[in-house]
C-alpha cells in the first residue's frame, strides 16, 4: 500500500457535519409545492423505490422538467410510483440507471424490433395494463419468500443466518415474513437487529402512514400497527442492539439465530464480527444484495464455507415498461443517459424528441414555448381600448400596468393607487437607468453620451404607423375632408413611389413611398387634416 | 365571476358545520356536520337547499372535511349512504382514521343507549369511509382540471386542517376549527399568506381573549388532585378523541411527578384503541411530542387502565374519562347520575357544551337537573369548567385574517352577539369586508378576475429586469425596505386574435410579430427666414470659418457643402440598414427626417455611397464630426429658439441641425427642395431652413415654424 491509498482513509465528514447539513434541508411532503426565488416551482412525487423516495417536477415560467429517478410501480412497503401525476411534463430527464445492474431485465433487440410495427396499436392499449399489472410486486414477494425459506432451512439445520441488506423497505418486509414463517414452522429462533440506527428506524417506520403503500395505510384505518415489528418487539421475538458490544446482547444471544446487520460492502460494523464467527460453518447462510464485485467484498473472509445467497431487488423501471410509460406521460422531450442508447430503442413513431446526456457535458434543450403563460387582471382588461386592424382579424391595444410575480406566475395588474402620483417621476427615474446604462456603452465606445437619453425617450413614446399606403384610399380620405388632390405616380428601382399634389384650399404635397409618407405644407390646418387622413388609411398604435 | 357561499349549518350558531361554496362552475361542500342539540331533522344540514339537489353527484364537485368532530362530519354517512352522494370526499389521514370511531361511537350512543331509530348503520359508516381520499398536509391535490385543494395544519384536534381551494383564479380558505396556540400535544395552526378572495373562519371565541394555557392546566390539576386526595371521584365527560388524549397526557405526567397511585380509567375499550391511532399518527402532533417518539411514544400512558361497569359504584377515589362529551347521553350521563349527588365528587367539563345538553345546563351550576318527568338529579358535586377548548380566541382570529389577507371574510361557528362585535373589529381594524350569514343564507363575494394571456419574453424582461436592477441598487445602497419600492409601470401592446389567447408583446416586437414594417409619417416644410445679407456673403462667411475642410480643395461652394452634408446623412442611413443593432446607428436613426432628405438626393450621393462604403467605420465617424460643424446662422437660430422655448423643452444642437423632440431643422441650399411651397427668388436676403418632424410633434413644430417665419436673424 502506498501513500496515495491512505488518502482514502481520511475523515470526509463528521457526525456533527451531518447534523449541520441536515438542518439546512428543507423537507417537503409528496405533492407539496415549494417556490424557489419566486420563479421555479418544485414538487416531489412518490417514486415507489423506498420510503420517501421521489421524482421531482421543476416548473419554470416557460417549461417544466421532470427528474425521473429509479421508480417502482408497485411496492409492498412504500407508496407506489405516482406516474399519473407526472403527465404534462415538457421534458423528462430519465435518470433511472437501475438497468446497468439489472441484467435480467434486458430486452433483447430483436423482440423490441418485432414489437415496433404490428403490435403498436395493441401495445398502446396494453400500455396502461402493463403499467398497472402487479406481476412485479408478486415477483418481489416471491424473492422474499425464497430468502425466508432458505433462512428457515438453515436454522432448522442448526446454522445461523446473517442478512446484510441495505434496502430498508425490503428489510422490514423480510423481517415480517421471516417471523411469520418461523411461527408457522413452530421454530423459536430469535431475530437480532444489530445496527446503530435500527431502533430509530423501527420506531419511525411505524409513524409514517402517509408515506406507505395502500395496504399499510389500510392498517392505519383498522387501528393496526403499520409494520408488525412493533408487536414482535413487544413479544420479544426480535431484539434490537446498536452493536455487538452492546450491554444485554450477551444475555439475549442464542444460536441458531437470524441477524440483520447491513453494510454495503461488508467492511464495517457487526457484520464483520459475525462473518468471522460463522464463515467456517457450512450450515450458516449469508444473504447479501447483488453487488458490483462480490468476490472482493468476501475476500477478507475467505476461505468461506458458509453458504452465500445473493439477491437483487427490483430497483427501477423495467426496460420493457419505459416505452409504455413515456407513451402514457406524453412528454415533448426525453433525455436518456448515453449508455442506455443500446438498450432503450428509440421508436421512430415516437411523438417526442429523444436526446442523450453524458457525464460532464451540458445538453441544451430546445425551447418549447416562446411566450410565458401569464395573467391579466380583469380591471385592466376592461380598461383596454382595442383597435381593429385593417386586415380585420386582429385587434390591438396598448396596455399599461404592473407586473407582479407571485409563485412563478406573472400577473399584469393595475398600477397601485399610491404610486400613481409618482408615476411620472418613476418613469423618469427608469429613463435615467436606461440612459445611464446606455451612456456606459457609449463611454466604452468613446462616443457621445447625450444621444443615449434621446434614443430612450423616442423608444418609449413613439407612435407607430404600419402597413402600406394605398394612394387611392388616401385620395378618398382626403376628399372626405374636403381636400382635392391629384395623384402622380413614379416607378423607381426600389418600388413604387407617388406624390399627391394638393392646391386647394392651400398648397401641399404628400410624398408616398413603400415605407414612409412625407407631408409638406405651410398651412397648419391643412397639414392637420392631411395627417388625419393619412393616419386613417394606416394601422397605428 | 362571484363566489357564492351558502351556509347550511353553523351560521350564527355552533353545530352542524356545513358551508357550500360555488364558484367557476364548481361546488365544494366544506364539512358535513350534525347538531348535537337536536334530535329531529334539524340535526342535519338542509341539503335540499343545494342547487340541483336532485342529483348530488353532479351538483357537488367534492366534499372536504376539516376534522373528525361530529359537528363537522356527523352528517357525512347520512349524506353519502342515505342520500346517495358518490363523488369524491377529502380529509386528512388522521381524520380518515379516526372519523369512523367517532361516528360509530355516536351511532351506538343513539341506538343502544338512547334507543333511537338509527340514522345509519355500522356498514354504512364503513361504506362512507371507503369513498374518502386521504390527503397529507400541504399536498396539492388536483381534484379535477380546474379545482385544486390543499390542507394546512389547524391544531384543534389531531388531523384538523384548514383547506385552501382554487378554481381558476378564485381562491377560498375554509378554516374549520383551529387553534393559534400550541397545546400539550398539538402545534399551532400554520398557513401561507394566500391573499384569497374569501376566508371562511370559525368564531367560537369571537369576543374573548384567553389567559395563559399554563394557568388553566394548573387549575385543572389542582381541582382534580384536591378531589382525589379527599377520596372523591372525578368524572370527565369527554369525546373519545382529542381532548381526552391531551388531558390524559397531562394527568399521566402529573401522576408520574406526584407519584400518585389512584387509578385513571378510560371508559370502554374504545379510547384505549384510540390511543393506538394516536401512537401511529404522532407525526401530526407537536414538534416536542414528535421528537420524543423513539424513546417513548407520548401516547403510551403508564397510569391509565380500562374501566369496568361494576366499578361505577365501587368505593375509593378515581379519575374517569367517559364518553360522550357534554353529557349528552350514554355512559357519561349514566355515571353522572350516580356521582353527581355526592359533594366529594367532581365533574370536569372540558370545552364547549352545546345548548340542550346536560353539560350546558351544568355550566350555570344548578342544584338540580331535570332529565325528564321521572328523573330528577340532585347536583351536589363540585363542577369545574375547563376553558380547555382548542379553539382560537379573538386575537387568534384577527391574527389569522391579517396573515391570510383575504378580500372578504365570512364568520361561521359562533354566537351572534360576539360575531357582530368581531365583524366590526374586522371592518374597522383590518378594513376587510365581513359577513355573518345565518343558516340557509347565501353570501356572494366577487372574486379576483384574471384573463389568461401570453407574454413575450421581451415584454417581461424589459419590464422586470429593471425592477430587479432597482431592487439590487436599493440593496447595495442599504435600503432594504422592499415595500417602499416605487412600482415599475409595465407598458406593452396586447394583440387579440379570434380563437387565440391574447398576447402581450413589447412595443418593439409588434411589427415583426404582425409581419409588417413601419410606415413612417413625417411632415416636412422648407421655408425662408430673413437674414439680412446676400446669399453670397453667407457662403463667404462659411468658408472663412473653415467649414468642411476636406472639401475646400475641390473648390467649395455652399451648395457643394450641403450636398456633402446630405451625402453623409445618406451614408448614415445606409449604415443603419447595414447593422441596425449597433447603438451608434440606432441613435442616428433617431433623426429620421435626415434620412428622408437623404433619400431625395441626386446621383452624386450614390457615388458617394460607393466610395464611402469601402471606408472603415472609424473614418466614417471622423468625417461625420468634421462635416457636421456648426453653421453660424443655425447656431444663432438655436440660441434664439432656446431663449424662446425656455428650458422646458428638450432642444439640442447636433450634427449641423437643431433637434427638438422629433423635429429637425437645418439649413437648406437645395433650390429644388421638394418641401418648398414658395418660390425662392422672392427671398434674396433670406436663408432657407428645411424642417421635418414626426406627425406626433405637429403642434409643436407648427409653433416653431411660425416663430421662425417672424424671426430676423440679421439683427446680430
UniProtKB/TrEMBL annotation, chain A:
Q: What positions does the domain Beta-Casp occupy? A: 171-296
| Swiss-Prot/TrEMBL keywords | Cytoplasm, Nucleus
Known InterPro entries for this protein? Beta_Casp, Integrator_9su, RibonucZ/Hydroxyglut_hydro
Under SUPFAM superfamilies, the record lists:
Metallo-hydrolase/oxidoreductase
Tell me a GO biological process for this protein. snRNA 3'-end processing
Read off the Gene3D superfamilies from this record.
3.40.50.10890, Ribonuclease Z/Hydroxyacylglutathione hydrolase-like
Pfam families, alphabetized: Beta-Casp
Instruction: Just give the chief location class.
Output: cytoplasm
Record has Cytoplasm as a keyword: yes
Say yes or no: keyword Cell wall biogenesis/degradation present.
Answer: no
> Where is this chain's protein located in or outside the cell?
Cytoplasm; Nucleus
Q: Name one GO cellular component term.
A: cytoplasm
Domain of life, per UniProt, equals Eukaryota
User: Matching SMART domains, A to Z?
Assistant: Beta-Casp (SM01027)
| Protein name per Swiss-Prot or TrEMBL | Beta-Casp domain-containing protein
Automatic annotation (TrEMBL), chain B:
Q: Name one GO cellular component term.
A: nucleus
Keywords in alphabetical order: Hydrolase, Nucleus
Where do the Metallo-beta-lactamase domain residues begin and end? 15-232
GO BP of this protein:
polar nucleus fusion; snRNA processing
**Beta-Casp domain: residues covered:** 244-362
SUPFAM superfamilies attached to this UniProt entry: Metallo-hydrolase/oxidoreductase
Give one Pfam family, short name only.
Beta-Casp
User: Which PANTHER family does the UniProt record give?
Assistant: CLEAVAGE AND POLYADENYLATION SPECIFICITY FACTOR FAMILY MEMBER (PTHR11203), INTEGRATOR COMPLEX SUBUNIT 11 (PTHR11203:SF37)
Full protein name: Metallo-beta-lactamase domain-containing protein
Q: From which organism does this entry originate? A: Amborella trichopoda
Amino acid at each position: 500500500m502506498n501513500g496515495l491509498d491512505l488518502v482514502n482513509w481520511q475523515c470526509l465528514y463528521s457526525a456533527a457535519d451531518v447534523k449541520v447539513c441536515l438542518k439546512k434541508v428543507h423537507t417537503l411532503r409528496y405533492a407539496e409545492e415549494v417556490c424557489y426565488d419566486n420563479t421555479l416551482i418544485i414538487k416531489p412525487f412518490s417514486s415507489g423505490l423506498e420510503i420517501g423516495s421521489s421524482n421531482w417536477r421543476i416548473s419554470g415560467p416557460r417549461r417544466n422538467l421532470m427528474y425521473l429517478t429509479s421508480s417502482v410501480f408497485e411496492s409492498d412497503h412504500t407508496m407506489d410510483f405516482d406516474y399519473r401525476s407526472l403527465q404534462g411534463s415538457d421534458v423528462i430527464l430519465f435518470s433511472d440507471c437501475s438497468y446497468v445492474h439489472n441484467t435480467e431485465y434486458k430486452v433483447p433487440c430483436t423482440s423490441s424490433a418485432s414489437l415496433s410495427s404490428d403490435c403498436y396499436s395493441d401495445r398502446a392499449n396494453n400500455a396502461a395494463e402493463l403499467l398497472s399489472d402487479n406481476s412485479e410486486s408478486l415477483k418481489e414477494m416471491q424473492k422474499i419468500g425464497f430468502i425466508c425459506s432458505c433462512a428457515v432451512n438453515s436454522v432448522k439445520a442448526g446454522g445461523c443466518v446473517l442478512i446484510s441488506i441495505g434496502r430498508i423497505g425490503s428489510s422490514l418486509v423480510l423481517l415480517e415474513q421471516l417471523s411469520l414463517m418461523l411461527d408457522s414452522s413452530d421454530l423459536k429462533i430469535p431475530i437480532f437487529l444489530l445496527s446503530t440506527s435500527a431502533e430509530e428506524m423501527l420506531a419511525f417506520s411505524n409513524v409514517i402512514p402517509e408515506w406507505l403503500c395502500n395496504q399499510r395505510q389500510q392498517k392505519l384505518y383498522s387501528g393496526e400497527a403499520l409494520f408488525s415489528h412493533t408487536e414482535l418487539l413487544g413479544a420479544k421475538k426480535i431484539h434490537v442492539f446498536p452493536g455487538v458490544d452492546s450491554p444485554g446482547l450477551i444475555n439475549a444471544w442464542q444460536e441458531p439465530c437470524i441477524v440483520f446487520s447491513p453494510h454495503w460492502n461488508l467492511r464495517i460494523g457487526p457484520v464483520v464480527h459475525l462473518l468471522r464467527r460463522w464463515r467456517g460453518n457450512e450450515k450458516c447462510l449469508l444473504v447479501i444484495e447483488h453487488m458490483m464485485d462480490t468476490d472482493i467484498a468476501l475476500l477478507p473472509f475467505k476461505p468461506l464455507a458458509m453458504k452465500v445467497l445473493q439477491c437483487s431487488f427490483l430497483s427501477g423501471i423495467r426496460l420493457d415498461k419505459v416505452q409504455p410509460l413515456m407513451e402514457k406521460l406524453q412528454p415533448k422531450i426525453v433525455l436518456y443517459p448515453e449508455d442506455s442508447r443500446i438498450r432503450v430503442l428509440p421508436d421512430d413513431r415516437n411523438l417526442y424528441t429523444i436526446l442523450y446526456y453524458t457525464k460532464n457535458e451540458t445538453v441544451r434543450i430546445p425551447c418549447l414555448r416562446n411566450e410565458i403563460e401569464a395573467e391579466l387582471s380583469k380591471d385592466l382588461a376592461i380598461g383596454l381600448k382595442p383597435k381593429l386592424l385593417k386586415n380585420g382579424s386582429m385587434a390591438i391595444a396598448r396596455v399599461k400596468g404592473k407586473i407582479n410575480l407571485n409563485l412563478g406566475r406573472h400577473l399584469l395588474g393595475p398600477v397601485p393607487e399610491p404610486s400613481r402620483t409618482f408615476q411620472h417621476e418613476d418613469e423618469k427615474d427608469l429613463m435615467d437607468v436606461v440612459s445611464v446604462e446606455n451612456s456606459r456603452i457609449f463611454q466604452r465606445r468613446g462616443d457621445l453620451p447625450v444621444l443615449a437619453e434621446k434614443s430612450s425617450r423616442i423608444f418609449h413614446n413613439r407612435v407607430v404607423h404600419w402597413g402600406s399606403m394605398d394612394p387611392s384610399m388616401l385620395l378618398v380620405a382626403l376628399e372626405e375632408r374636403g381636400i382635392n388632390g391629384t395623384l402622380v405616380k413614379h416607378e423607381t428601382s426600389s418600388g413604387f413611389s407617388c406624390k399627391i399634389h394638393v392646391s386647394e384650399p392651400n398648397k401641399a404635397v404628400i410624398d408616398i413611398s413603400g415605407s414612409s409618407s412625407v407631408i409638406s405644407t405651410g398651412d397648419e390646418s391643412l397639414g392637420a387634416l392631411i395627417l388625419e387622413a393619412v393616419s386613417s388609411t394606416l394601422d397605428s398604435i | 365571476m362571484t363566489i357564492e357561499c351558502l351556509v347550511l349549518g353553523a351560521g350564527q350558531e355552533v353545530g352542524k358545520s356545513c358551508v357550500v361554496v360555488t364558484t367557476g362552475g364548481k361546488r365544494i361542500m366544506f364539512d358535513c356536520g350534525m347538531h348535537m342539540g337536536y334530535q329531529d331533522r334539524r340535526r342535519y344540514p338542509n341539503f335540499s337547499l343545494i342547487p340541483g339537489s336532485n342529483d348530488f353527484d353532479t351538483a357537488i364537485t367534492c366534499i372536504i372535511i376539516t376534522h373528525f368532530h361530529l359537528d363537522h362530519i356527523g352528517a357525512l354517512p347520512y349524506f353519502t349512504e342515505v342520500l346517495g352522494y358518490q363523488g369524491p370526499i377529502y380529509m386528512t389521514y388522521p381524520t380518515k382514521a379516526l372519523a369512523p370511531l367517532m361516528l360509530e361511537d355516536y351511532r351506538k350512543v343513539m341506538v343502544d343507549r338512547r334507543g333511537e331509530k338509527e340514522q345509519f348503520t355500522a356498514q354504512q359508516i364503513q361504506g362512507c369511509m371507503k369513498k374518502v381520499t386521504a390527503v397529507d398536509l400541504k399536498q396539492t391535490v388536483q381534484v379535477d382540471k380546474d379545482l385544486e385543494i390543499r390542507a394546512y395544519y389547524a391544531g384543534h384536534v389531531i388531523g384538523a386542517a384548514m383547506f385552501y381551494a382554487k378554481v381558476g383564479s378564485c381562491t377560498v380558505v375554509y378554516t374549520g376549527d383551529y387553534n393559534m396556540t400550541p397545546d400539550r400535544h398539538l402545534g399551532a395552526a400554520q398557513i401561507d399568506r394566500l391573499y384569497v378572495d374569501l376566508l371562511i373562519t370559525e368564531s367560537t371565541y369571537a369576543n374573548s381573549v384567553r389567559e395563559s394555557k399554563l394557568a388553566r392546566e394548573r387549575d385543572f390539576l389542582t381541582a382534580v388532585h384536591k378531589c382525589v386526595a379527599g377520596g372523591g371521584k372525578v368524572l370527565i365527560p369527554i369525546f373519545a378523541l382529542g381532548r381526552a388524549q391531551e388531558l390524559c397526557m397531562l394527568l399521566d405526567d402529573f401522576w408520574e411527578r406526584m407519584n400518585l397511585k389512584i387509578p385513571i380509567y378510560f371508559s370502554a375499550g374504545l379510547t384505549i384503541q384510540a390511543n393506538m391511532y394516536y401512537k401511529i399518527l404522532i407525526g401530526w402532533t407537536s414538534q416536542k411530542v414528535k421528537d420524543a417518539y423513539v424513546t417513548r411514544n407520548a401516547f403510551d400512558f403508564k397510569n391509565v387502565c380500562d374501566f369496568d361497569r361494576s366499578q361505577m359504584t365501587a368505593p375509593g377515589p378515581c379519575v374517569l374519562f367517559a364518553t360522550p362529551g357534554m353529557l349528552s347521553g350514554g355512559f357519561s350521563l349514566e355515571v353522572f347520575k350516580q356521582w353527581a349527588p355526592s359533594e366529594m365528587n367532581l365533574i370536569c367539563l372540558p370545552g364547549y357544551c352545546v345548548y340542550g345538553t346536560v353539560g350546558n345546563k351544568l355550566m350555570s351550576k344548578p342544584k338540580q337537573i331535570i332529565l325528564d318527568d321521572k328523573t330528577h338529579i340532585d347536583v351536589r358535586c363540585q363542577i369545574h369548567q375547563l376553558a380547555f377548548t382548542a379553539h382560537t380566541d379573538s386575537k387568534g382570529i384577527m391574527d389569522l385574517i391579517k396573515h391570510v389577507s383575504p378580500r372578504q371574510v365570512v364568520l361561521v361557528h359562533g354566537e351572534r352577539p360576539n360575531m357582530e362585535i368581531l365583524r366590526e373589529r374586522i371592518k374597522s381594524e383590518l378594513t376587510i369586508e365581513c359577513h355573518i350569514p345565518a343558516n340557509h343564507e347565501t353570501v356572494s363575494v366577487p372574486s379576483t378576475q384574471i384573463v389568461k394571456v401570453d407574454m413575450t419574453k421581451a415584454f417581461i424582461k424589459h419590464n422586470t429586469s429593471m425592477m430587479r436592477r432597482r431592487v439590487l441598487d436599493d440593496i447595495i445602497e442599504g435600503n432594504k425596505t422592499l415595500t417602499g419600492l416605487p412600482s415599475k409601470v409595465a407598458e406593452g401592446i396586447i394583440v387579440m386574435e379570434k380563437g387565440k389567447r391574447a398576447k402581450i408583446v413589447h412595443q418593439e416586437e409588434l411589427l415583426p410579430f404582425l409581419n409588417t414594417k413601419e410606415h413612417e409619417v413625417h411632415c416636412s416644410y422648407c421655408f425662408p427666414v430673413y437674414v439680412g445679407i446676400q446669399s453670397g456673403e453667407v457662403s463667404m462667411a462659411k468658408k472663412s470659418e473653415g467649414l468642411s475642410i476636406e472639401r475646400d480643395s475641390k473648390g467649395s461652394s455652399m451648395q457643394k457643402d450641403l450636398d456633402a452634408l446630405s451625402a453623409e446623412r445618406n451614408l448614415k442611413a445606409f449604415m443603419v440598414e447595414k447593422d441596425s443593432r449597433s447603438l451608434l446607428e440606432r441613435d442616428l436613426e433617431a433623426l429620421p427626417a435626415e434620412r428622408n432628405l437623404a433619400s431625395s438626393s441626386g446621383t452624386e450621393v450614390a457615388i458617394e455611397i460607393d466610395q464611402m462604403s469601402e471606408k472603415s467605420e472609424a473614418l466614417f465617424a471622423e468625417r461625420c464630426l468634421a462635416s457636421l460643424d456648426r453653421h453660424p446662422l443655425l447656431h444663432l437660430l438655436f440660441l434664439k429658439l432656446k431663449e424662446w422655448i425656455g428650458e422646458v423643452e428638450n432642444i439640442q444642437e447636433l450634427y449641423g441641425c437643431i433637434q427638438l423632440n422629433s423635429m429637425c431643422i437645418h439649413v437648406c441650399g437645395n433650390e429644388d427642395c421638394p418641401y418648398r411651397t414658395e418660390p425662392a427668388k422672392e427671398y434674396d436676403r433670406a436663408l432657407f431652413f428645411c424642417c421635418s418632424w414626426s406627425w406626433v410633434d405637429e403642434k409643436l413644430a407648427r409653433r416653431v415654424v411660425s416663430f421662425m417665419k417672424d424671426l430676423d436673424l440679421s439683427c446680430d
